[in-house]
């Protein structure tokens, strides 16, 4: 079952079970996917976005909510922070398991070896290889500096 079908079946189930918070979050996910589909159609892709891009959308949505929850906590709005965290839990149901730091380090080493990266100039190639293989499984904002350190050493 592809990601789009998983989201739609979860949405239907939330409707049946009368879960308004879950339903709201799933509708936001669906809307984000449809927005990206529309963008893809304007670029000549009539099939819609692939699962890898849907994973990237979900990862971005989860990260946005984490930042919002942090901002709400700092502002003393714990009720809103809690709502953001509830949405994160629902979004993460569709994301693959996040890699541990040891697994991320091993993936970086494998990508560097596979590409034969020698210097910081190869960082883009290494990051592209990691994104192709591990979308949704690692935080690329944190991986970038690790790759840079690895190539600088």
Summarize the SSE layout with pairings:
Layout: H1 3-17, H2 20-42, H3 51-74, H4 78-92, H5 101-115, H6 123-134, H7 140-152
Describe it.
It is a single chain. α2 (20-42) packs across α4 (78-92) and α5 packs across α6. The protein has seven helices and no strands. The protein is an all-alpha fold and 153 residues long. The chain is globular, with a radius of gyration of 18 Å. The protein has helices at 3-17, 20-42, 51-74, 78-92, 101-115, 123-134, 140-152. The protein has two domains: 3-92, Hypothetical Protein Yqey, Chain: A, domain1, CATH 1.10.1510; 101-152, Arc Repressor Mutant, subunit A.
What's the overall geometry?
Answer: globular
Terminal CA distance reads 43 Å
Mean pLDDT value: 87
Please describe the biggest sheet, giving its number of strands, its sense, and whether it closes into a barrel.
Answer: none
Number of domains: 2
CATH architecture of the largest domain: Orthogonal Bundle
Beta percentage is: under 5%
| DSSP, total strands | 0
Topology pattern, helix = H, strand = E:
HHHHHHH
